[in-house]
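Typical record was shown:
=====
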Amino acid sequence: MNEQLAFLGFFTTPLELISFLLAVTTVALNIRQKHWAWLFSIVSSATYAAVFFEAKLYGDMGLQFVFIGASVWGWYQWLHGAGDQQLVVTRLKRSGWTWALAGWALGFFLLSFFLDRFTDTDVPHADGFLTAGSLVGQLLLGRKKVENWLVWIVVDVLYVGLYVYKGLMLTAVLYAVFVLLAWTGWRAWSNIARKDA
């Protein structure tokens, strides 16, 4: 599925196009708090792993496998994470922010070191930083924390530049759409958390 095709004025592959459509569906369902989003996330992550392997974005490729596991965990959390009730949208406390930022920094250091030393990627630091941030965003999403959307806004803006650099134009467009969707998600979930406070 590596043959090039034109879509929205960009050249892409059928696999990248399928991944694009699955990923947009995932985020749209996440905003609406539909647990089926996690199924779309699993399939999208599997297809994007192949796309990123071809682009030598090994951190992103590995991240897709982590996303598959995190999606299974997130699906369970959304259905059973509050005991006998479904998980509700809440905000991070100050200690939660501290742990999230510390985890992002540690992940960045470890991933960048690994990618720089053991792979042939030409963007080890960008790949490591964004991979670590994506892990933090996914964990916060799995626990229905409003702030997951802020993490995704930062990560997605930076991913647009990385994917343009790597020639993955359709995926760059996808992440630009993700920025808008993350902004929508942040506003929607902020309103939900405010009502429940």
